């Protein structure tokens, strides 16, 4: 019982901190961002590489060959390529405790040239206990087209910490995964179509017609009319110089254009396990009433009149605020006034001890009733 109360208090504090941060962030105004942070150039991308190899030199922590026959086959094939022929009778009895079969993965950056080095990740695919201290033998890394683009080899470094005392031991991190810094050398360059034609395509990170139109307006203002044309809500076609030197300078200037992105669509993300609630500033509420157990939430629209001062030249305006009341026990009601903010509702529910399950049920009910003007995503 004490542990449950402690966990509930910790969850409550976590939600309070998150919502306080959310309220401060949502109060900010929109600001300009560089175009390189909003979009990428079509065709300028990374390419994944993968390869198979052997990690040797392990301190008895390698694969158990009776359960991983592919390790024995790989060792025999490697020795044959090096001119060592083994009798067929000896291969079935090989005990290779210092060898482990591994997969090697990395990403080939755009415009990589032969001779450049890459960091690689080495992961055991057998039942090796650890690959710490091992050495990766030369392993070719292939792309999706089956061509070899890099060769990996080197000493494997496994991060983490270990401690042992009086019959107990503690190990942090995965011992079956390691990295080799600058462990791969690029052998083949990926052809790029960036320098072909008289135009390039920009791809927005998020599909948004408003942001696309703002990007077109900013680019045309900087480089002249009809330089940029939006193809849809994500792709923008831009006329660029033909020469490679001029095109690189043009793209450098293009990436540093400041654009004010459009407001994103309203969205609420709820983690049902921890009770964390994240929302953006576009979320709003409409009139509704929700009853859940001994909790009840009532949101009413409250009309108010804003009267300017005498001789100020202003006009009388009618405002509509949200009056939020939350009742946790009979006869006890918590009132919140101001704009229709979901953050206020969640903070008030948290203050009276609502659990993550209560938050989930209430937010789902608001969404089903049409009061929550946002997309609700539960993770």
TrEMBL record:
Keywords in alphabetical order: Bacterial flagellum, Cell projection, Cilium, Flagellum, Signal
Any matching Pfam family: FlgI
Chief location bin: other
Family recorded in the similarity comment: Belongs to the FlgI family.
Cited function: Assembles around the rod to form the L-ring and probably protects the motor/basal body from shearing forces during rotation.
Subunit annotation: The basal body constitutes a major portion of the flagellar organelle and consists of four rings (L,P,S, and M) mounted on a central rod.
Protein name, UniProt field: Flagellar P-ring protein
Lineage: Bacteria, Pseudomonadati, Pseudomonadota, Betaproteobacteria, Burkholderiales
């Amino acid at each position: 019982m004490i542990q449950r109360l402690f966990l509930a208090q910790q969850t409550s504090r976590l939600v309070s901190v998150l919502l306080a941060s959310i309220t401060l962030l949502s109060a900010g105004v929109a600001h300009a961002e560089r175009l390189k942070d909003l979009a990428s150039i079509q065709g300028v991308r990374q390419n994944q590489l993968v390869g198979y190899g052997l990690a040797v030199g392990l301190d008895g922590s390698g694969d158990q060959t009776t359960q991983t026959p592919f390790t024995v086959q790989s060792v025999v094939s490697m020795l044959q390529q090096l001119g060592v022929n083994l009798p067929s009778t000896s291969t079935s009895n090989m005990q290779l405790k210092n060898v482990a079969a591994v997969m090697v993965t990395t990403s080939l950056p755009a415009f990589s040239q032969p001779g450049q080095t890459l960091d690689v990740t080495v992961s055991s695919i057998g039942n090796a206990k650890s690959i710490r201290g091992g050495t990766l033998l030369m392993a070719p890394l292939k792309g999706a087209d089956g061509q070899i683009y890099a060769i990996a080899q080197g000493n494997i470094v496994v991060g983490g910490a270990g401690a042992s005392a009086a019959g107990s031991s503690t190990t942090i991190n995965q011992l079956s995964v390691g990295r080799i810094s600058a462990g791969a050398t690029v052998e083949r360059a990926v052809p790029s179509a960036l320098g072909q034609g008289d135009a390039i395509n920009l791809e927005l990170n998020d599909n948004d017609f408003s942001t696309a139109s703002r990007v077109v307006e900013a680019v045309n203002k900087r480089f002249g009319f009809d330089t940029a044309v939006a193809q849809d809500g994500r792709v923008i076609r831009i006329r660029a110089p033909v020469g490679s030197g001029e095109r690189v300078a043009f793209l450098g200037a293009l990436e540093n254009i400041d654009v004010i992105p459009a407001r994103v669509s309203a969205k609420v993300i709820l983690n049902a396990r921890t009770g964390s609630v994240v929302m953006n500033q576009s979320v709003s509420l409409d009139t509704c009433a929700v009853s859940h157990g001994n909790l009840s939430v009532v949101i009413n629209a409250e009309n108010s009149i804003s009267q300017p001062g005498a001789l100020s030249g202003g006009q009388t305006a009618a405002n509509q605020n949200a009056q939020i009341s939350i009742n946790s026990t009979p006869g006890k009601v918590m009132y919140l006034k101001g704009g229709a903010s979901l953050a206020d509702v969640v903070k008030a529910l948290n203050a009276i001890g609502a659990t993550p399950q209560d938050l989930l049920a209430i937010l789902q009910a608001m969404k089903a009733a049409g009061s929550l003007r946002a997309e609700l995503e539960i993770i």
